[in-house]
Structure formats: structure tokens, C-alpha cells
Design goal:
The complex is a heterodimer of chains A (192) and B (83). Helix content of chain A is 33%, strand content 19%. Chain A has 192 residues and is α/β, with parallel strands linked by helices. Chain A has a 6-stranded mixed beta sheet, with helices on both faces. The longest helix of chain A is centred in the middle third of the chain and has 13 residues, at 96-108. Chain A is globular and about 45 Å long. The termini of chain A are far apart. Chain B contains 3 helices and 6 strands. Chain B has a 6-stranded antiparallel beta sheet. Chain B has helices spanning 2-8, 33-37, 72-75, and strands at 12-14, 23-29, 46-52, 59-63, 66-70, 78-82. By secondary structure, chain B is an alpha+beta fold. At the A-B interface, helix 3 of A face helix 2 of B.
Chain lengths: 192, 83
Amino acid sequence: MSKKAAKILLVGNPNVGKSVIFNRLTGSDAVVSNYPGTTVDYTEGTFISGKQEYTVIDVPGAYSLEARDKAEEVAVRMLHEHRDATVVVVLDATRIERGLYIALETIEMGRSVLIALNMIDMAHDRKISVDDRKLQKLLGVPVVPLTAITGEGIMQLSDMIRKAQASDVKDILARAEGRASEPAQASGCAGC
Amino acid sequence: MLNSVTQVLNLKMKLSEMEFGAEGVITEINTEKQKINAMGIRVGKKLKMITKQPIKGPVVSTCGELEVAMGVDLASQVVVDVD
């Protein structure tokens, strides 16, 4: 009983480790280098987790979904072409703030999102502590801390992919400002 | 000379005009904010000018953990309240 392959898009700023995560998940060898903009076109691969086959698409790095260069154009196009795909937003734990921009933009699109908090080891080394549970509560989407180059957390990531979910930026703002404490459930009458 | 005077008076100046190593808080961004917010530059953030290149070369600054390079035109749209 083989189900249809579910799609996953790996999205995030340049040089946050999207391709390393891609390689870890699919066992392939996409070119990785320590320079932003190594992935200019997209790469595709597959992996299986919990009897479900996934097609993973490694999207070029982008700072925002308002494309300003070729790589960002590809990223935006991929997001629009694969409307049914789960989006894994990869954040660099040492530079969270910048990554949150595109994360929020993706959430704003109404996509099913999961956050991969990469480079946790580097953050540790630099004495940067990231409260991933609080981030998860704030954003209302699952957050998985990991270190892609060592493979730590990759299993958790592949297990959590099916738990990806959509969130609402308005609720996120309310929680960030302390106006609401619990991730709000979608209300029954939004516009009546 | 003028630069040192403005620094004493804690005046606002363009990022492109800041001295090497000068720090300040961003007060204005006079360009489409979308463009630059996504790179981690926004009003209220502390910023330090690291280097600028001659002949209208790029300006590099650090903003928290980030190191951001931008063209001199863009840098002249960022107004900083220099310490």
C-alpha cells in the first residue's frame, strides 16, 4: 500500500545548511560549500520515513519572498509551484533573527511549516542559547533543533515532518506581545 | 573634523558617512524597507560600521550577530544615531 510521495521544500536564508540537511535526509551529495549562494538552482531527492515516501526539494537560499535576484526568484517560484508541499524553514541558530523574516513570510502564505533550527552546536560554542520550545509556542509550528553536519537531530526532523502545520501571523504577533498565551485554535466564525 | 564634532553631539548621520568602528542605533531607513529588513537591518537596532571601500565601494557593518554588506547607495539611505 504505497501512498503518494509527499513533497517537502527546504527553504531558508543563504548559507544556513539547507543542502547539508538535504544530503542527510536523502543520502545524496548536493554540492555544499561555506559560501552563500552555492545552490542557485534546485535539487530534488527522496527519502522514506514511517512508510511515507517524501520528495525533498532543496531550494536556493533567499532572504525574503520578494525576489531580488535569480536564486530568490527560483525560491519563490518553487514555493508557488508546489502549493501542497510541506515547507521546512531552516534557521541558523546563531543568526535567528534574520531567518525569522522568511519564516514568517512563509507562515503568512498559509503554508504548512516546520522549523529546522540548524547549527545548534555552533550556537552552543558561541554561548548563544536558543529556547526552541518558546519559539515553538510563539510561532505555533514545530521547531526541531539539529546539527546537520554531525547528523544530530536529523531523525527527529524526519519524524516531525508530518507534524508540520500552518499558523497565523496575527496570532504570532499577539503571542509575541503577550496578548495571548496559548496557540489559538482557528475560530469558527472568522468573518461572520 | 566635522565627523568628530557630529559624534560628540550625538547626531544622526548616514551609514555611508560613518567612521570606521563607529556605533549607533538605526533611526530611519529611507528605502523600501522590505528590501533591507529581510537582511536583518531595521529601525531600533544597534549597528557598527566595520569597513567601507573607496570609490563608492560597499559598506560593511555588523548588526548583532550579523555582518551585512551593502552598496553605498543603499547605505546612504540608512540613518544612524551615532553614539
